[in-house]
Amino acid sequence: MLTPSLFSILPDYVVTPDGMQPHPDGDLVLSCPNFADEAISGVVVRITRTGEVTKWFDVPRHPETGVARNMGLALGPDGTCYLCDNQGWSGEDALAFKGRLLAVRAGRDGVIESRTVAWGMEHPNGVRIKGRHLYVTQSLLTREQDPSGQVVSGVYRFDLEDDDVFVTNTREDPQLIATFTTRDPEVQYGADGIVFGPDASLYVGNFGDGEVYRITFDARGEVRANQPFARDPEQLRSTDGMIFDELGNLYVADFSANALARVRPEGQVTRIAESPDSDGLGGELNQPGEPVIFDGRIIASCFDLVTGPDKVNTGHSLPATLCQVPLAAAQAWERPT
User: Fold this and answer.
1) Residue span of the structural domain in which 204 resides
2) For the chain, is the Cβ count within 10 Å smaller at the N or the C terminus?
3) Number of separate domains in the chain
4) Do residues 101 and 49 lie in contact, with contact meaning Cβ atoms separated by under 8 Å?
5) Integer Cα distance of 143 and 168 in angstroms
C-alpha cells in the first residue's frame, strides 16, 4: 500500500481538524471544530502549499452555547464560506438541535459579516455547493423512526441566499431531499461524506455501513433516484469525507480504519493506504476525516479523537496534523493479485 507522509503540523489553537477546500487564491482552507478541547471554539485557517498555517477567522459563536463547532466547509462562488456548525456532535442533551448552517464573508483580517442560513439542526456534517444550492448531510435524524429501529439520516438542500430557516429534523422539512437508514447495529451513524461527481450526480457516504450512495436528479433538479453505488466491507469500513479527481476516481476517508480508499468510476473499492494507531507526527492517517486534492496531492485532515471497538484510534494526542499522499500514486496503485 501507499505510505502517507506529513503535510502540516497544526498550531495549538487547532485540536480537531475536519473539512477542507482549496481557495481560488491558492491556499487550502481548513475548518476546525475543536471538539477535543471544550475551552477552544471553532476556527477556520488557511494553509499554504508548503504547509504553513495562519488563522483566517474565529467562527461566530452560537448565542446560546457560546462556542462554534464547525465541521464541513464549502466556498461559494463569491467567496462566502459556508460552515456546518455541529453543536450536537458531542451527544450532550443540552446541545441537541442547536446546529446551524452559517454563511461567513471574511477578508484577510477576519470576519466581515455572517448570517445563519438554517438553525435547529440536529447533526449537520458535510456541505457541498452545486449551482445556487447548498447540499448538507445530517448524520442523525432521531425524530424520524424507521420501522427497523435503525438510525435515519439525510441530505438537505438550501438556496445560497436562504436566511434564518428553521429545521424540524423530520420529513416535514421541504429542504430534506433524501434519507438513509444505517443497517450496522454497532455503528448507528448515517450520512456523512458528500460530493458531486463528474456526472453531476451527488455521492453520499453512509458512515456506519461503509457504503457510498449515488443520487441522480431530473431536469428540474428533483431527485430521480437514490441508490447504492459502492460497498466492500473488506476495503472500506466507514465513509467520512470524499473527493473526486479529474479521472472520476472517488477517494474516501475511512475514519474507523485509519485508511484511505479509492472507488473507481464503475464502483470498485480499493484501500490504497492505511496506518496503525499513532500520534500522526510521522504522517500517518491518524483517523482521517476529510480528503481534498491540493497541489497534486491528496491531503487528509486527522481528526484523532473518537475511540471504540470498531476504531483503530485509541485516543487523542497533540499537535494535530494533516497528512498527504501523491495523487498520481493514488490513481495508479493496484491491489496485488
Assistant:
1) 5-332
2) C
3) 1
4) no
5) 9
Helix/strand/coil for 94: helix
Q: Among the residues of the chain, which ranges form H helices?
A: 327-332
Residue 165 lies in a domain: yes
E strands, 160-221, in order: 165-166, 176-181, 191-196, 202-206, 211-217
> What span, in angstroms and rounded, lies between the C-alpha atoms of 139 and 118?
16
Per the structure block, which three cell numbers stand in for 153?
Answer: 439520516
Residue whose C-alpha cell reads 429542504 in the numeric block: 175
**145: in domain:** yes
- What average pLDDT does this structure show over 24-31? 97
pLDDT of 337: 79
Q: What percent of the chain has pLDDT over 70?
A: 100
Rounded average pLDDT over 26-52: 98
Q: What is the CATH number of the domain that holds 328?
A: 2.120.10.30
CA distance 53 to 67: 22
Percentage of residues in the chain with pLDDT exceeding 90?
98
Beta-strand pair 297-302/176-181: unpaired
Name the helix (H) or strand (E) containing 27: none
Q: Does residue 337 belong to any structural domain of this protein? A: no
In this structure, the number of other CB atoms found within 10 A of the CB of residue 196 comes to 16
* Whole-angstrom distance, CA of residue 68 vs CA of residue 194: 21
Grid coordinates in use for 50? 508548503
pLDDT tier at 98, thresholds 50, 70, 90: very high
pLDDT at 336 over 90: no
Question: Cα–chain-centroid distance for residue 316?
Answer: 19
Give 60-82 as a 3 state SS string: CCCCCCCCCCEEEEEECCCCCEE
pLDDT at 109: 84
Distance, CA of 325 to chain centre? 18
* Closest C-alpha among 42, 16, 6, 45 to residue 28: 45
